[in-house]
Amino acid sequence: MAAETAAETVRPNNRKIRDGVVISNKMERTAVVAVVSRVRHPRYDKTVQRASRLYVDDPANDLNIGDRVRVQETRPLSKLKRWRILQVLERAR
Hints:
By secondary structure, the protein is mostly beta strands. It has one helix spanning 2-9; strands at residues 17-27, 30-40, 47-57, 68-73, 83-90. It has a five-stranded mixed barrel with strand order 1-2-3-5-4. The longest helix is centred in the N-terminal third of the chain and has 8 residues, at 2-9. It is globular, with a radius of gyration of 17 Å.
């Protein structure tokens, strides 16, 4: 019973985590990451790729175009920025 009360008091981190590719780094401390998701087409039952653009906080300005990154949802940092870098999975060649 003590384990259940301890688990109930700890708030789970339910922030979204996505993997994507940096497509723009021209802004100061901001990068644009394209995240591709595969969804089923409702009528044709074919798998379709949908891409969304996420504005990511890059405080060190060290991301380059083509880097594969893992990003996490966060509080609003500016008008469009709601994501931050968790880790760089692979650097662009």
